[in-house]
Input
Amino acid sequence: MKTILDTGCHIVAQAAKSAKVDFVSAYPITPQTSVVEEIASMVQRGEIDCRFLPVEGEHSAMAACVAAAATGARTFTATSSQGLLYMHEVLHMASGCRFPIVMANVNRGVFAPWTIWVDHQDSLSQRDTGWLQYYCASLQEVFDTIIQAYKVAEQIKIPIMVNLDGFVLSHCVMAVQIPDQEIIDRFLPTVEPAWRFDPQNPTSYVSVTGPDLYEGFRTSLHQDQLKALDLMVQAAREYQELTGLYHGDLLDLYRCDDANTFVFAMGSMAEELKLSVDILREEGIKIGLIRLRVFRPFPKEAISKVLPEDATVVVLDRNFAFGHEGGILFSELKDALFTRRDNVRLLNQIMGIGGIDLTYQYMAEQVKNLLGL
Amino acid sequence: MATSIKDLPRDEVVMKGHGACAGCPSTLALRIAGKAFGPNAVCVMTPSCTVASLGLIPKAAYDYPILNVCFATAGSSASGIVYAYESLYKKGKLTGEMPTVFTWIGDGGTYDIGLQAISAAAERNDNYIFICYNNEAYSNTGVQRSGATPKFAATTTTPQGKMEDKKNMPLLMLDHQIPYLATASLAYPTDFYDKLVKAKNTRGFKYIEVFAPCCTGWKFPSSDMIRISRMAVTSGAWLLYEAENGKIKFNGPTAKIMEGKVELSPLEDYFSCQGRFASINRAANKEEIIAEAKNKILADIEFMKKRAAF
Amino acid sequence: MANKIYDEKYPVSYPMHGAGGKTGDWRLLTPRIDREKCSKCMLCWVYCPDAVIDRETLEIDYEYCKGCGICARECPRKAIVMIREEE
Ligand SMILES: Cc1ncc(C[n+]2csc(CCOP(=O)(O)OP(=O)(O)O)c2C)c(N)n1
Ligand code: SF4
Ligand code: SF4
Ligand SMILES: [Mg+2]
Output
């Protein structure tokens, strides 16, 4: 294990290198740009044995990744905001093909009007593309999660998006421990793809499908998404055994054990919220933090298990669910807890849109306001 | 030496009982491509008549490994395959001879929605063969206009006949300075075959466009498909040429036309046997329209002569 | 040619004859080759979009021939005629 000090974008590139990807295709967009630059130069310097395809846009980048995956190559890409939106059609294709592509998405608000700063509208708008989604709170977690994502994606044959907040994580420098290559190799064995071009045994893939079979393919994608929950837990544990590094299974719980009040959030703001929780605890509030590591599949049972029957949950959303009350996490959580006919109370606030800085003091204040304290 | 019909390989990539219309040009073209490329090839297809004719899962009418991809992504999908193969063969994860990578794309997927990605792949000189079968419309969705639909042709979105000229896609590709480019006609299958083989044996980006008269879209009897393919060439409406490293060489009847050795066959005949040009026959200024179309062909021929003299 | 059953998870399809059905049923007119007139130039074979004319025997597979009429139209010897089948 060695420790390196670098920016979020470079750590993403480092993770792709450690995963020994065969193929990368990506297109630059702020704040993801230096991921692309770093991978391109690593390839040119011969530090990573892979081909880098410099395409003319993100729609092509994702298309190239899907086609590359169809040769059996381990593929990687990274994007952000408009780039992710531009990929949308091909994201559906990737999951329908059951190809284990891993993509880093640097979260950024969406046009219009233009912004380059963080919120979670870009990735949450891809909720129903069939991709699994992780959200990270530190650069160590970004590195470890990308490695874990390959493990899970290749086991369940569903692509995975690993999200990190624009600038707050992508451009900040942190110390990150990089496990020895042989450990990562042991963690990530090669796996046969769902389908590959095979001239010896030629078959066609994802062609026109009648109503008799189409629903079956979609249903199995859905069922396997749900099965991924267990695999994600296993991956986190196995990775911990091998490296000692751990950020939670599906959730990262902070001071939840005796809590009756919870803050629920994801991304870098959730890391900052740990300090808010400390302040509120000092004021005598029995509060804990539930940081969502995995948004898709939604870890409904894991969350529910944490919440006692008289729990109050303050959901902090960095996104809008337009035309519906509250943010997307709020809707998801309400939905997840619907069958619990107890006294769980949910409160919600949207904050930090388009890069508004979320300090722990500010968030502590907001939580208190919501709690009527 | 040009290949003769009897020398064509026996490989049949088109299975009997595919779903295309009787007399479909796309499947005939694919049949010939299968002979040229042999079994060690892989293909991407965008939504089109060819994909519709492939049949429903779990059946496939074409005996190649085929990945269906999004409409705009032929160019980048094939590049992804080539780069990934290069990586896997270099690492020794795959061994043996690297398959020929080719795309099978309609004019819609080439001239229109796919243009950006194709242009980028050509500029990078990625090592695959881009094949466009040009049936001059979006046939699969019910024959709407495309950038390849010629002026005056009726489609379901140009019911009175298209008002604009088609774009010159092969020239556009030639100006990407690619190592090999060819146009082809199904009336001259061995010329098409030889061009496919040449493309297979050339490194870098290859572009081949085959003219594909679609009886359903153009409204003519299916038995006339080859006849109309031939008339397009002899009337000058479709020029046969190839360009190795940018150097243009005309082929077949087009070569004779360029040398002034043969007259163009009457364009009226080419128009009158296709229902899509019926409005010309009915028009009061029929002569004027045909003169305009002829002049355009003559101007194109003059331009191409000069372009080839570079 | 693989004749596997379909996979429940992965949308794979396998090359086989008749992927579009028994396309011989589409036929309105049927090509008949007159062996006396045929010079074995192979033009009908090369132009058939359905690959139903046998390379060696020039026999037509009527299970799948769609009756497009290209073979008859292109035969330089007029050795193929399109006839209305009576059954
Ligand atoms: C993004 C997208 N837009 C539209 C369509 C609908 N569509 C399917 S095939 C097609 C036309 C295909 O035309 P062409 O490429 O010329 O092939 P042809 O059908 O003529 O063989 C269209 C518009 C689609 N599949 N995807
Ligand atoms: S509409 Fe035209 S291109 Fe499409 S299958 Fe029929 S003949 Fe072929
Ligand atoms: S009629 Fe058409 S499908 Fe039948 S054998 Fe002749 S060319 Fe082939
Ligand atoms: Mg078309």
